[in-house]
Amino acid sequence: MRKSFEHQLEDLNQDLLKLGSMVEERIHKAITALKNKNDELAQQVVENDDEIDDYQMEIEQECINLTALQQPVAKDLRRINMVSKMATDLERIADLAQNIAEIALELSASDYVKPLVDLPKMGEIAQEMIHDALDAFVNSNADKAKEVAQRDSKINDLDEQILRELLTYMVEDPKTVQQSNDLIFVSRYLERIGDHVTNICEDIVYIITAERVSY
Amino acid sequence: MMENETKTIEIKDLDFYYGDFQALENVTFDIPENKVTALIGPSGCGKSTFLRTINRMNDLIDGTRVDGDVIVEGDDIYKDEIDVVELRKEVGMVFQEPNPFPKSIYDNIAYGPRAHGITDTEKLDEIVENSLKHAALWDEVDDRLDQSAIGISGGQQQRLCIARALAVDPDILLMDEPTSALDPVATAKIEDLIDDLKEEYTIVIVTHSMQQAARISDYTAFFLMGEVIEHGPTQKIFEKPENQKTEDYITGRFG
């Protein structure tokens, strides 16, 4: 019954979940740092990126080892290949969180043109999407993965809304251009995070159904 | 089977019995020309029995009975008027253990053609050379054709047995785990050879190595307790099998 292979697959699942929760925490810290002008939190996100990179490479190596030593086929093959790919998406999400934290450090000395509401909301949605996607992954729930992917449209709507709003500020007062521009980048980074989570959801559906979908 | 492929062997509602024991049940599928079809499944699932129905090797076992049709190149081979010797000339077989005759390399290959009445030395020389070349063995033995076939390596012996099967000019080659007694290098040579041979022959191979089936076959049939659970293009069977039992078997979660 391939007991040791089963254990290794279970370890791989756990490792991906751990990477996912590390990445979730990064987004939470970056957005909180931005919202509350907390340099210390932002600094943590910027400085600890190696940890994520190392973990991602570890998962990738596990996938290569399992492929070489266990010759997986069918669902096992899809799972191992997709875990490797999902780890790459998660690592990219962490990089984007780092970019957001860098902007948080840049803006912490100045006052915001208005309190940040929509950006934290986007951050929250993105974080929940990662959490629920990984939930769908462990429970092999393709419907849930699809539902999570569809939430990406909320992020996209907010991104457009934020862009329009900040453009208005810039037109009205050129002194806000620098800050507005930075915040537009944050919004765009969050929008990209949503796209990476959508990729992850598509990979989960592929593992479960063997059908390639595009959301 | 793809639409543009010709079926060489058609199996319809095939049942097979060893006395009271039913070893094959309602087996139905087509085997296309110039392709490699792999038969996989756990021990005792009926895959070797099935292989032997294609050239009536099971006739040699007492108390066996066949129902249904095995149609080879348009002829129902279980009809009374079928000449079994002629059938086995068209449908050659290679076994698990290399089984060369204790004769010279030359005489091993010439044995079949001689049995079919060829006596002309030049003709026999030509058949021996061509068969050994087809089996990718000629370059290794052309300077010692008169030496005993027992003295060459196991991998060479198995290629000799393939050459011997080819010498009577068959259309179909049946192989029953042809590499299970060979090391990885000799196995790779046989697998390369199978890939070359399918240009001219239709090959049906029983293998216990799932990786081997995946590497060398175009079609795979999964047998379980005498039934064909799933049959289809090899890539589909190994990437996206339709039946859960197939998935359980190929991923090693069976039993």
Topology:
The complex is a heterodimer of chains A (215) and B (255).
Chain A lengths: L2 H34 L2 H9 L1 H22 L3 H34 L10 H21 L3 H9 L1 H21 L4 H33 L6
Helix pairs in contact in A: 1-2, 1-3, 1-4, 1-5, 2-4, 3-4, 4-8, 5-6, 5-7, 5-8, 6-8, 7-8
Chain B lengths: L6 E12 L2 E12 L3 E5 L6 H7 L10 E9 L2 E2 L7 H7 E4 L10 H11 L5 H14 L3 H4 L12 H13 L5 E5 L7 H14 L4 E5 L3 H7 L2 E6 L2 E7 H6 L4 H7 L5
Parallel strand pairs in B: 3-8, 3-9, 6-7, 7-8
Antiparallel strand pairs in B: 1-2, 1-4, 4-5, 9-10
Helix pairs in contact in B: 3-4, 3-6, 4-6, 6-7
Function (chain A): Plays a role in the regulation of phosphate uptake.
Main location (chain A): cytoplasm
Subunit structure (chain A): Homodimer.
Tell me, what's the shape of chain A?
elongated
What's the number of helices of chain A? 8
The CATH superfamily of chain B is P-loop containing nucleotide triphosphate hydrolases
Measured as a percent range, the helix fraction of chain A is: over 70%
Keywords:
heterodimer; A: 215 residues; mainly alpha; Methane Monooxygenase Hydroxylase, Chain G, domain 1; 85% helix; B: 255 residues; alpha/beta; Rossmann fold; six-stranded mixed beta sheet; four-stranded antiparallel beta sheet; 10 helices; 10 strands; 35% helix; phosphate transport (chain A); Phosphate-specific transport system accessory protein PhoU (chain A); cytoplasm (chain A); transport (chain A); PhoU (chain A)
Task: Tell me about this structure.
By secondary structure, chain A is mostly helical. Chain A has one domain: Phosphate transport system protein phou homolog 2, domain 2 (Methane Monooxygenase Hydroxylase, Chain G, domain 1). Chain A contains 8 helices and no strands. Chain A has helices spanning 3-36, 39-47, 49-70, 74-107, 118-138, 142-150, 152-172, 177-209. In chain A, helix 1 (3-36) packs parallel to helix 4 (74-107), helix 6 (142-150) runs antiparallel to helix 8 (177-209) and helix 7 (152-172) packs antiparallel against helix 8 (177-209). Chain A is elongated, with a radius of gyration of 19 Å. The relative contact order of chain A is 0.14. The model of chain B has no long low-confidence stretch (mean pLDDT 94). Chain B contains 10 helices and 10 strands. Chain B has a 6-stranded mixed beta sheet with strand order 6-7-8-3-9-10, sandwiched between helices. Chain B has a 4-stranded antiparallel beta sheet with strand order 2-1-4-5, with helices on one face. In chain B, helix 4 crosses helix 6 (154-166). Chains A and B meet through helix 4 of A and helix 8 of B.
